[in-house]
């Protein structure tokens, strides 16, 4: 077996189960805002039996204007930098946390390809986590095709959550 949180043949499944178990143990809830992953992160979470005890829901804001309209991402920021930016990722996480009333929230935004977007190369991704102690964004430079980049984004988001939860209890 590979790194903790990744089961052979089922990327994200083991990490999702571990994250949900940790959240349940804390009595905490989770929401998700997705762009490039298009629902893959939510699917990984709801694929775990009992997810409904922790997972509040998700918003897939694939279109740039929805990031502002639904999640409260600053329109000026989007106009200047486009949707692939660390502050956009943080604002997406904060917005879905507020919108869905969750203790924690994850967000994904980036370029899965096949073409660059807004001057950003394929594989440029930001995942963000908003929680009780603040918000952080993690930059990623992923390689491979669309599916690989999207799945890598899901895995990275779940690992970010797991690291933050572990640091709180350790």
Detailed description of the structure:
This protein has helices at residues 13-26, 40-46, 64-71, 75-81, 86-100, 146-169, and strands spanning 30-34, 55-60, 104-110, 124-131, 134-141. A 5-stranded mixed beta sheet has the order 2-1-3-4-5, sandwiched between helices. Helices cover 44% and strands 20% of the residues. Helix 1 runs parallel beside helix 6. It is of the alpha/beta class. Strand 1, helix 2 (40-46) and strand 2 form a beta-alpha-beta unit. The model is unreliable at 1-10 (pLDDT under 50).
Q: Key terms for this structure?
A:
170 residues; alpha/beta; 5-stranded mixed beta sheet; 6 helices; disordered N terminus
CA distance, first residue to last residue:
25 Å
Which sheet architecture does the biggest sheet show?
Answer: 5 strands, mixed
* Number of E-state strands: 5
Helix-strand pattern, N to C?
HEHEHHHEEEH
């Amino acid at each position: 077996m590979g790194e903790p949180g990744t089961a052979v043949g089922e990327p994200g499944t083991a990490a999702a189960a571990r994250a949900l178990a940790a959240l349940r143990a804390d009595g905490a809830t989770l929401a998700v805002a997705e762009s490039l992953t298009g629902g893959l992160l939510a699917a990984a979470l709801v694929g775990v039996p009992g997810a409904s005890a922790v997972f509040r829901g998700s918003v897939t804001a694939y279109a740039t204007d929805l990031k502002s309209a639904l999640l409260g991402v600053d329109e000026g920021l989007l106009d200047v930098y486009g949707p692939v930016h660390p502050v956009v990722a943080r604002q997406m996480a904060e917005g879905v946390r507020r919108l869905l009333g969750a203790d924690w929230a994850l967000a994904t935004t980036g370029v899965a390809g096949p073409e660059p977007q807004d001057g950003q190369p394929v594989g440029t991704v930001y995942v963000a986590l908003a929680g009780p102690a603040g918000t952080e964004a993690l930059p990623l430079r992923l390689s491979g095709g669309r599916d690989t980049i999207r799945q890598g984004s899901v895995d990275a988001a779940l690992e970010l959550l797991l690291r933050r939860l572990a640091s709180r209890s350790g």
